[in-house]
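Protein record

Derive tokens from sequence
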Amino acid sequence: MSTPTRTTHGPMPSHRAVENLIARYAELVDDGDFAGLGALLADATFTGSGGPVHGREAIERMYRDTVILHDDGTPRTQHVTTNVAIEVDEEAGTAVARSYVTVLQALPGLPLRPIAAGRYHDRFDRRDGEWRFTARRVRINLVGDVSRHLRLAPERR
């Protein structure tokens, strides 16, 4: 016996659209698609350990300067985003989200292992019917061996 498939018509619910943006970020990082990250965060201010960065080109450059790509063109990571809490103000066309992130990495000759864990704090706006990031703040509070993932500034090595 088959189960009926529910289809929806019209625009995607706001919570789902915001959740998809959060997931897309992880996919782009793990694919090593820094131009895609620049486009995804083009209207956002990204704040991580290096301070705030704003705009498509600056965000793309920040990723190229800090994330190590391996022979397959990726950082060999898996960003796992969990505990996602999204609050949408439909009338204002804004949303905020909080989530956890765990970064796993596997390299030839090394086992799969967690290398970092922390939280994302995000802000979004809806413009012309499309949701987009306006801010991403990353707080990594558990750090393992990131020596094969990040190019660290000399004072952080």
